[in-house]
Specification:
The chain is α+β, with helices and mostly antiparallel strands. It has two domains: 111 residues, no CATH class; 241 residues, Cytochrome p450 (Orthogonal Bundle), CATH 1.10.630.10. It contains 17 helices and seven strands. It binds protoporphyrin IX containing FE. Protoporphyrin IX containing FE binds next to α12. Pfam families: p450.
């Protein structure tokens, strides 16, 4: 008995000693790297788990994701490294480097979402298309759906859903804006993608999608009580629901006149520049519909919520915005909002952009370095993941004058022009 205890003590001390040596070794090597101006500063945390626990904890706390980043930026500077989810991550907050990383898509840097995200949204999703041709193909197909006609139909639907929600709010004492916005944007996305309208089926899908989203930045351990496990289970249910919807539509695709993405993909319509769409497998359709629901629902609902907060805090902006809306309403003959009306909302567009700048809604769009390179004067190794610290840039006083002031006039592009130039990619990083 004594012998077993003794060897246990030995084994434990040995492990602890190894850990100490490992940490000291790594700490020394960081310091060495730094003194030669090679690798960015930062801690790689504990073996295997790195600083993942701290990252997940910050993300689940009320402080959020950026607390993890900000604490380290203050400690190590504008370019620092850490280790999360088993990989070395570098965070940068210089505008030049940010542009370099984003404009170098697939040359030196490629998309790099975590393996666990691929398990949740599906590896045929556009988010997991790590090869340029494959990504370009998916992007072209998905963006060619958003023609002016499709956008016009979508604007009408969104307007109807918003009006309906606003009427129902009038009768209620308290409304939690984010919850309500999430319902509106979810319904809008499902209508646009698959013509699904309010029903029990839609409500179940909404709950499952919320679980998948929650699991995306959770610790990726698949045990019955973890958020990740619940996310995977919800994904399975979504997969089955989408498979039924796709089967059903395939049966009637020739006679159906739905104006949604599913119809567009299944009927193989001509894209704007001529050639027929490539045929998509059911799995590709399922994964990308789920991705689009998540990408469109959460971002837009968060943007609406933050915008309402900023408008409440800035009554002068609210008044100017209301004047613009009332003038458009006076002149417009249509009962629903049209694309033409939207084009006249130049001040509203600035309010949206300013809200996106202040709130930095999309926290994470990682890229992997495909070769050794230099960023901010530091050496970046092939395989490291580069993350742009969008919030630091958005609130940088050398980029924006008085950055914490909500001041919509600072943005001056017209809504449609900027929508076209952004193409769903760089809109949070101007
Ligand atoms: C306020 C609303 C939105 C914001 C702030 C936003 C922000 C972003 C950002 C920053 C990215 C870049 C991710 C990266 O490069 O890794 C992105 C990508 C994407 N977004 Fe949005 N987005 C919004 C609305 C939407 C909507 C409504 C949809 C769908 C209809 C959508 C679909 C996508 C897709 C599919 C991608 C991936 C594009 C690719 O990999 O090429 N987003 N979005």
């Amino acid at each position: 008995m004594l012998a077993i205890e003794f060897s246990l003590v030995h084994a434990t001390s040995l492990v602890l000693l190894c850990l100490c040596f490992w940490r000291i070794g790594r700490w020394k090597s960081h310091d060495h790297d730094h003194s030669k101006g090679r690798a960015p500063r930062g801690s790689l945390g504990w073996p295997l788990i790195g600083e993942t626990l701290q990252f997940v904890a910050a993300n689940n706390s009320c402080k959020g994701f950026y607390d993890f980043v900000q604490t380290r930026r203050i400690r190590y500077g504008n370019c620092f490294k850490t280790n999360i989810f088993g990989k070395t991550h570098v965070f940068i907050s210089g505008t030049k480097s940010a542009r370099a990383v984003l404009s170098n898509d697939f040359c030196i840097f490629s998309k790099s979402y975590m393996r666990s995200i691929a398990e949740l949204v599906g590896d045929e999703s556009i988010l997991c298309a790590f090869h340029h041709e494959q990504h370009q193909l998916l992007r072209n197909v998905l963006t060619s759906f958003f023609s002016v006609e499709a956008i016009s139909v979508f604007i009408r639907h969104f307007d109807e859903l918003t009006k309906k929600a606003l009427h129902s709010w009038e009768k209620r004492g308290t409304v939690v804006v984010l919850e309500e916005a999430l319902k509106i944007t979810f319904n809008a996305m499902c209508k646009m993608l698959m013509s699904l309208e309010e029903s029990n089926e839609l409500e179940m899908l909404r709950k499952d999608v919320a679980q998948v989203f929650e699991a995306m930045l959770a610790f990726p351990i698949n045990l019955p009580w973890t958020a990740f496990h619940k996310g995977l289970k919800a994904r399975k249910k979504i997969e089955n629901a989408l498979a039924n919807i796709i089967n059903e539509r395939r049966r009637v695709v020739e006679y159906s006149n739905e104006q949604d993405l599913l119809q567009f993909l299944l009927s193989g319509e001509k894209s704007t520049n001529g050639p027929l769409l490539p045929s998509f497998t059911d799995k590709q359709i399922q994964d990308n519909i789920l991705t689009l629901i998540i990408a469109g629902q959460e971002t837009t609902a968060n943007a609406i919520t933050w915008m309402m907060k900023y408008l409440d805090e800035n009554q002068d902006v609210q008044e100017t915005l209301r004047d613009e809306q009332l003038k458009i309403e006076e002149k417009s003959r249509a009962s629903s909002l049209t694309a033409d009306d939207l084009n006249k909302m130049s001040y509203a567009s600035k309010v949206v952009k300013e809200s996106l700048r202040m709130a930095s809604i999309v926290p994470w769009f990682p890229r992997v370095a495909l070769e050794d390179c230099k960023l901010e004067g530091f050496k970046i190794r092939k395989g490291w993941v580069i993350n742009i610290d969008a919030k630091a840039i958005h609130l940088d006083s050398s980029v924006y004058q008085d950055p914490t002031r909500f001041h919509p006039p600072r943005s001056c592009q017209s809504p449609i022009a900027s929508w076209r130039s952004e193409q769903g990619r760089e809109h949070a990083l101007e």
